[in-house]
Amino acid sequence: MKIRDVSRRAVLQTAGQVSLVTTAALAVTGCGDGESLIVCADPNKMSVSENSIRKANNYVEKSPHADKNCAGCGFMHPVPEGESCAKCEIYLGPVNPAGYCDSYSAREA
Prior knowledge:
The chain has helices spanning 8-29, 48-56, and strands at 86-87, 94-95. 28% of the residues lie in helices and 4% in strands. By secondary structure, it is mainly alpha-helical. It is elongated. The chain contains two helices and two strands, in the order ααββ. It has a two-stranded antiparallel ribbon with strand order 1-2.
């Protein structure tokens, strides 16, 4: 059996191409849950203070808890008709109804 000489450069190029293809495939398919994620809190469109308070409260666009999300939180205002995002009393900008943060407080019935 003859082993073909392969240069280090060729191996690195191939590995880079595989990484690029994998990253692109994941970006297109998302997490594979079949749901598209609505991004209400784009960090690039918010002020430093808005980003800071969201980071301090560990805000995420999709809740890791099945029974806790912004839609069920007492701080969130109802989503306006025709909109995807809502306002929260804690944050200056919009929040995702499917989101979550450490300041979550269940809405009283």
